[in-house]
Amino acid sequence: MQPFLFDRAGSVAEALRAVSDATVIAGGTNLVDYMRLGVVSPKRVVDINGLNRETAALGRITLDHQGLRLGALVRMAEAEDHPGIRAHYPVLADSLALAASRQIRTMASLGGNLLQRTRCEYFREASWPCNKRRPGSGCAALDGLNRQHAVLGTSDACIATYPGDMAQALLVLDAQVELTGPGGVRLMPVAKVHRQPGATPYLETTLAPDELITALVVPASPWSWRSRYVKVRDRRSFAFALASAAVALDLEGDRVKQARIALGGVATVPWRAEAAEVALVGKPLDQTTARAAAVAAFAGARTRAHNAFKVPLGQEVLVQALLQAGALQPPPPTTRNGVTHA
Questions:
Q1: Which residue, among 186, 41, 4, has the nearest Cα to 126 in the 3D structure?
Q2: Tens digit of pLDDT for each residue in 188-217?
Q3: Direct distance between the N- and C-terminal alpha carbons of the chain, in angstroms, rounded to an integer
Q4: Whether 144 contacts 152, CB under 8 Å
Q5: Per-residue pLDDT tens digits for 59-90
Q6: Contact 244, 262 (CB under 8 A)
């Protein structure tokens, strides 16, 4: 690890002044890893955990009839354990519980989790060419060992997989990111946060360099409780997805009124499978329609030498997620005038 300056921001204003020329750290479970590997070498690191003292909402979970608000400094384990999230947003609780290890989830912040960087081994090892790490150097994964790599959203410059779980859950819940910058506060759909690699894989998000994530905002919806996240990986715990699926459904009887589907472990960004959603609308939810939707979800897949198995695996994972979500029963009514408080 290279030497660096370390500061603590005591206010949002201090943090905003720092972000343009420093690297922000909260839980540090992604950044510190890459600093140790020499993949990133920031000159200055600014700890934002102290912002809770000025703005308590950054570390607070609020759940009411309007929806769910998660402060960016809330730890993954806190959200995972929240009884209201488990009852009314099970896809989100699932995605958090299946990520990393309990120790890491206790450290990692929700804002940092959304922005985590790829675990591509060619990105992590500085001796390999990687367009994401060193623009213009090439992509060693294209003709290398690419079992873990993406089959959706790829380009000739990068096939690295987005590693997270929570982002897929947020996609199907139509969540927004609250961003705070010098110009004030703005909301951005989670679906617009991450960039597909195209010819510029080193540009990973659409956030401005002087903005901070301050909250994740999830609206109330008729499909949030009928939702599920299914993940398949090489180990039962502490492993990234080979394929995963987040599903949220609004049913009328046994027919699909609305469907929301996002895929993980198979794409370069959190991947909304809109063709699969269209394939389900108006149809009964059963094995036949679920499999037809799964085929539609991977119609545009581009496989490489070692990762073609992800297409049938991803299809099977999606079928399981759809059928499991369809079988869910509504949660019991909330108390205290219909409002659940964190």
A1: 41
A2: 999 999 999 999 999 999 999 999 999 999
A3: 39
A4: no
A5: 999 999 999 999 999 999 999 999 999 999 99
A6: no
User: Token match 């910058």: residue?
Assistant: 181
**Would you state the structure tokens that stand for residue 238, as one six-digit string?**
């502490």
Task: State the alpha helices, DSSP H only, in the chain.
Answer: 12-19, 31-37, 51-54, 76-81, 83-88, 90-97, 102-107, 110-114, 121-124, 166-172, 274-280, 287-297, 310-326
Report d(CA 45, CA 206) in Å as an integer.
21
Domains (range + CATH), the chain: 1-47 (3.30.43.10), 57-219 (3.30.465.10), 227-326 (3.30.390.50)
Paired tokens of 243:
């394929």
pLDDT at 340 over 70: no
Q: Are 173 and 167 in contact (CB under 8 A)?
A: no
Alpha-carbon distance of 111 to 74, in angstroms, equals 8
Structure tokens at 160: 């690295």
